Amino acid sequence: MSGRELVVGVDGSAGALAAVRWAARVARERRLALRLVHALPELPVPYPRADPTYEQLLEAAGAQGRVMLAEARDAASGVDAKTVLRSEQATDALVAESGDAAMLALGTPGLRPLGRVLLGSVTVALTAHAHCPVALVRPHAGEDEPPAEGPVVVGIDGSPVSEEAIAVAFQEASWRDVPLIAVHCRHRDGWWDTGKAAEEYERELLAQRLAGWAEKYPDVVVDREVVAGRAAERLLDYADRAQLLVVGSRGRGGLGGLALGSTSQALMSYALCPVVVARPRAK
Predict the structure, then answer these.
(1) CA–CA distance, 211 with 161 (Å, rounded to integer)
(2) What is the mean predicted confidence (pLDDT) over 242-262?
(3) Domains of the chain
(4) 226-237 pLDDT per residue, tens
């Protein structure tokens, strides 16, 4: 994490509350400041008579911010936390806030009876355009917190943005002192490629992609997995026993297109653990 603050988008929902508590613990452990950002769409000032609506919204947002701040401090006592109110659309506000952030955390709705959550337009836009990694955290029915045990899992393809995901995944595994499972899926033109030579070749490529990072983080135990199947399905299998899943946001390659499309949206919608979407930082 290159920034010194962890930003959380808050709106009073259960998902936002889960994200605040998760982010507060991360911020305290990594000695980062925590910034809770509430966005209000800008309202025109009526003329010539004042309209109390805007002031009421400001008051409600302030009260909501105080509740979220209390939750952050309850989850991680001693965390350096503050609230920020921005009078603009949520996407614009949070993209701007992400510019100097270590990470942006967002809450998502809890899973529906069929196990899926519909992602909102703000969430999708931020995972595509934020200037830092974006963590998606959902509340867990019957539990106060997301899973805190298990490995970190990263999906790796052949694209340049995959390097961003690898960097984030190694950093997260090192901070959490847990193993890292690096998953590369073999899927070609709708047919499973089961040739031994092809599998060995892709294993070697995966090892090469990870070599420099393994040297940088010698404390991280890495399990390299080359598996056959569709990327979303196989990564969700691993995510079921993980505490964090890391993916890239752009690029196409061996994972059948680990872009912000069907694969990434499926992972963001179905994964039980928090999902971090690695974003390339602006040059």
Answers:
(1) 17
(2) 62
(3) 5-137 (3.40.50.620), 152-278 (3.40.50.12370)
(4) 888 888 889 999
